[in-house]
């Protein structure tokens, strides 16, 4: 057996490659293609372009809320700049109201701010506990942006209150607040309903209804000094 192996190696040692046979070819290493977006870094862009780009993104989300439809735009490119602006604007417009108490001037800025953000956090935690498939900040983004119709309602109510406190003015405010309340609720559910299990959608929508109802009640009961 050993002699046979030796003869095999001896035969292989006689095999040689002739110099007349050309050896040609190329060795190429496939490189991953880089898209233009990967090569572009936002760290190198001017501050002005960054601000304009962010403002355009916020404006597009406002359009999605005012014309609600099933879309992943708010979920895919979420941010909290729009909700922050809406929350601050609504809290500022609710300043200076007269309450039943002679000493208190209505809901203060911090109270409105805490009610909105605390309510959004509770709804988000409820959604996660029910088995929702969206992230914590995505839910906050949707709930915050959907305050936009109620912010518009607050602005309209402030303008109507400039004309006085008559029953006609209250009726106009009531219609506006109810319409914007329905708009906010429908817009938020259009974005968030599909992220919930089919048999638990009602449990997820009910807190959203209460959240916007509380905000609507603060707007409707607002009366200036």
Automatic annotation (TrEMBL):
GO terms for biological process: endoplasmic reticulum to Golgi vesicle-mediated transport. InterPro entries: Yip1/4-like, Yip1_dom. Residues 67-218 form the Yip1 domain. It is a multi-pass membrane protein. Its main location: Golgi. The keyword Membrane applies. Keywords: Membrane, Transmembrane, Transmembrane helix. Pfam families: Yip1. The chain crosses the membrane at residues 78-97, 109-130, 142-164, 170-192, 204-223. It is found in: Golgi apparatus membrane; Membrane. GO terms for cellular component: Golgi membrane; trans-Golgi network. The keyword Membrane applies. PANTHER family: GOLGI MEMBRANE PROTEIN YIP1 (PTHR21236), PROTEIN YIPF6 (PTHR21236:SF1). Belongs to the YIP1 family. This is Protein YIPF. It comes from Phascolarctos cinereus. The lineage of its organism: Eukaryota, Metazoa, Chordata, Craniata, Vertebrata. The gene is YIPF6.
């Amino acid at each position: 057996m050993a002699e046979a192996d030796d003869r095999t190696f001896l035969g292989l040692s006689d095999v040689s490659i002739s110099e007349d046979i050309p050896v040609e070819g190329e060795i190429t290493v496939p490189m991953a293609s880089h898209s233009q977006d990967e090569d572009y870094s936002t760290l190198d862009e001017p501050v002005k372009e960054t601000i304009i780009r962010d403002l355009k993104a916020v404006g597009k989300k406002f359009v999605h809320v005012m014309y609600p439809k099933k879309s992943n735009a708010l979920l895919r490119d979420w941010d909290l700049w729009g909700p922050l602006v809406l929350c601050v604007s609504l809290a500022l417009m609710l300043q200076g109201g007269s309450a039943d108490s002679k000493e208190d001037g209505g809901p203060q800025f911090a109270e409105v701010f805490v009610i909105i953000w605390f309510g959004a956090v509770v709804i988000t935690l409820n959604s996660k506990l029910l088995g929702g498939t969206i992230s914590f900040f995505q839910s906050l983004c949707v709930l915050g942006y959907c305050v936009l119709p109620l912010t518009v309602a607050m602005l309209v109510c402030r303008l109507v209150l400039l004309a006085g406190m008559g029953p006609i003015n209250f009726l106009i405010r009531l219609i506006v607040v109810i319409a914007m309340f329905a708009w906010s609720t429908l817009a938020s559910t259009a974005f968030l309903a599909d992220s919930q299990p089919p048999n638990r959608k009602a449990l997820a929508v009910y807190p959203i209804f209460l959240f916007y109802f509380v905000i609507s009640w603060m707007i409707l009961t607002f009366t200036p000094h």
